[in-house]
């Protein structure tokens, strides 16, 4: 199912959507955590972006498994990619909580402040994981080709 679209592997196509949308959700979460006024105007957009990114992660992992049958084991990349959903889901839940609590006018500033603080921590953790997955994927796809094509340094230089 998640193998090819028009003769191209689905995995790199979907991964690029995740690599754009999840960092946007991460930055949006941090922005809305520190700027409460933006929650009214941008909260639903943030939830939408985070939801689409989160929904695409299983598509990316499934298509990666299909691609693995053609190109071989990507090693650490597959394990890190499988973990990404566990960073995106809490981020999405915290985004929803932040926006809903704000719209309800929750009386406890401490509650909203606590949710905002936890959301920032979740966003930073998700950002680190996105980097780790992307770095391992780039190394799995390009590591040998790039390092083997670099010319040796001339001893006279």
TrEMBL record:
Keyword tags: Membrane, Transmembrane, Transmembrane helix
Protein name: DUF2231 domain-containing protein
Transmembrane segments: 13-32, 44-64, 84-101, 110-131
InterPro entries according to UniProt: DUF2231_TM
Domain DUF2231: 7-147
């Amino acid at each position: 199912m998640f193998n090819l679209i028009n003769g191209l592997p689905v995995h790199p196509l979907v991964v690029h959507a995740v690599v754009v949308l999840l960092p946007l959700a991460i930055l949006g979460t941090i922005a809305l955590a520190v700027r409460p006024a933006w929650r009214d105007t941008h909260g639903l957009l943030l939830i939408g972006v985070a939801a689409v990114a989160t929904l695409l992660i299983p598509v990316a992992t499934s298509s990666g498994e299909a691609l693995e049958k053609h190109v071989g084991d990507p090693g650490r990349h597959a394990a890190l990619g499988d973990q990404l959903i566990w960073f995106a889901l809490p981020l999405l839940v915290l985004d929803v909580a932040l926006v809903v609590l704000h719209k309800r006018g929750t009386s406890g500033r401490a509650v909203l402040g606590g949710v905002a603080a936890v959301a920032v921590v979740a966003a930073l953790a998700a950002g680190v994981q996105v980097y780790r997955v992307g770095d391992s994927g780039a190394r799995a796809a390009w590591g040998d080709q790039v390092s083997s094509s670099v010319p040796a340094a001339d001893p006279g230089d």
